[in-house]
Design brief:
about 150 residues; 6 helices
């Protein structure tokens, strides 16, 4: 009795290019097909059209006052001014430290004024904010010096 023969699976043979530079992993002949050109960066005009289209699409879901604010805030000259200010002056840690120092200055000045009978001076919280802002910026600068650069 003969045993039934099983069909054998044939695996496709991959042929490799010659080993020109003693490469242990030569590329297959069809590797040129898989290498595609990298996408080129978009032009400024195309990028602005894409962003304005995305903004238009996002504004459709907003109510009227928010849509108006979005139109005003996303003007190119306002965005440039906001981005430059965010990168230089409006430091988040400085604002946080300024707020904390203003709160502490307000509480201390209020306690001293009420306990000892002095007139409350509104300059203390304002001065506390500016002192805290400067200290926060200095702390951020010191942390950036200590952080290893990658």
């Amino acid at each position: 009795m003969k045993s039934p023969s099983r069909p054998t699976k044939k695996t496709p043979a991959v042929t490799y290019s010659g080993d020109k530079h003693n490469n242990p992993f030569p590329e297959p002949h069809n590797a040129a097909v898989s290498k595609r050109a990298l996408p080129q960066p978009q032009s400024t005009k195309k990028r602005s059209q894409t962003s304005s289209s995305a903004l238009r699409h996002a504004r459709q879901d907003l109510n009227a006052p928010v849509r108006l604010a979005s139109r005003i805030l996303h003007r190119p000259y306002i965005e440039v001014a906001g981005d430059s200010l965010a990168a230089t002056i409006a430091r988040p840690i400085g604002i946080l430290f300024g707020g904390i120092f203003a709160l502490i200055g307000f509480i201390i000045a209020l306690i001293i004024a009420s306990r000892y009978g002095y007139e409350f001076n509104y300059l203390f919280p304002v001065a506390g904010y500016f002192i805290g802002y400067i200290l926060g910026c200095l702390v951020e600068f010191a942390l950036s010096l200590l952080k290893p650069k990658s």
